[in-house]
Write a structure and sequence with these properties.
With about 280 residues, the chain is mostly beta strands. It has helices at about 1-15, 20-25, 120-135; strands spanning about 35-40, 45-50, 55, 55-60, 65-70, 80-85, 90-95, 105, 165, 170, 180, 185-190, 195-200, 205-215, 215-225, 225, 235, 240-245, 255-260, 265. The chain has three helices and 20 strands. Strands 11, 13, 14, 15, 17, 19 and 20 form a seven-stranded antiparallel sheet that branches. It has a four-stranded antiparallel sheet with strand order 3-2-6-7, with no helix packed on it. The chain has a three-stranded antiparallel sheet with strand order 1-5-4. Bound molecules: zinc ion. Keywords: Hydrolase, Signal.
Amino acid sequence: MHRLILLLLLALALPAQAEGFITRLLNKPVPGGVAVLDLGMQGPAPRVRYRDKPVLVVKEDGKRWIAIVGIPLTVEPGVQTVTVERNGAPRTQDFQISSRKYREQRITLKNQRQVDPNPEDLKRIERELDEQTAAYRQFSESQPSNLLFDKPVNGPLSSPFGLRRFFNGQERNPHSGLDFAVPAGTVVKAPADGRVMLTGNYFFNGNTIFIDHGQGLVSMFCHLSKIEVKVGDAILRGDALGRVGSTGRATGSHLHWNISLNDVRIDPSIFIGQYKR
Ligand SMILES: [Zn+2]
């Protein structure tokens, strides 16, 4: 009898199925992180939506469907829900978000206009935001070539994702990506295959490239001194995209890299296997 209870407890303590590599790499269910959801093994790819946006779904280890969901920085720890649809019958699936602390950062800018843009700047910023939001919201059906990304440049990380930022003492949006401290002119390489969705010169982001890696997984590279690709170009993992610079709101040469999933900016360190709690 006791042995039976022991076996039962042991069975409860073990996960139903062993997690695959992608799940272990990407499942960081915190605000600004990623939740990997097991969708079971049956049938064709289910369609998954989170906050009314389509979600990346891939097959793990050739057998199990998983959803890879971007979690907004603004989400409170607790229960979140996706809808899963197969054969036209949607159902909901809950998952749990735990907490993560993000530090503060204070930055001094010489150009006060980058902290308090004038009315004309604000018009420009709004136009650029619309353009960039539209890029993030595109959803192509192609499968990402790899989910363990290569670092786009070889260099030390300077600012992590999610820092609460104060520019000249005023709080602005938290840091939406990862910064690498590398000299101007360093080649920026594609972390995975993709297609160039958008390029531009923006008020805050400077010279910028958007790459669609498939199914709403998007990379954005900012502050470039040079853009060496054009919209529509097919990109292979490792291809040169442009050069590091300090255009836009930047205090010096660095690469700023955003990753977006289901139109949510998440911590890119997860995708290069360097996430720290
Ligand atoms: Zn940055």
